[in-house]
Amino acid sequence: MSEENEEFEEITSEEVDRVVAALESLIESTDSENIRSYLEEAMNEIYYLVYEDEEGEEEWDSSVEACDESDEDFSDAA
């Protein structure tokens, strides 16, 4: 492997926030529960790339529940 592949990529919180916001918008416009589930799982994974502390998890869990219009909670699917 080359040295470039061994270096870690820096991911900024601004980029994560932008992508999460875009995914939230996409989730809101998606009718399929299966697709919503996958998108929410991806959103959680992306969010935790930067925000890994317990305080952030509590805030994120409540925002995921707030954007989920169905009775099902997919925030634990990850």
Topology:
Blueprint: H1 3-6, H2 13-28, H3 33-47, H4 54-67
Helix pairs in contact: 2-3
Question: Which runs of at least 5 residues are low in confidence (pLDDT < 50)?
Answer: 68-72
The whole-angstrom Rg is 14 Å
Give the proportion of residues in helices.
55-70%
**What fraction of residues sit in β-strands?**
under 5%
Largest sheet: none
Mean pLDDT: 77
In total, the number of domains comes to: 1
Order of helices and strands: HHHH
SSE class = mainly alpha
Number of strands: 0
N-to-C span: 30 Å
Structural summary, described in words:
This protein has four helices and no strands. It has 78 residues and is mostly helical. The protein has one domain.
List keywords for this structure.
single chain; 78 residues; mainly alpha; 4 helices; 0% strand; elongated
Task: Write a compact overview of the structure shown.
The model is unreliable at about 70 (pLDDT under 50).
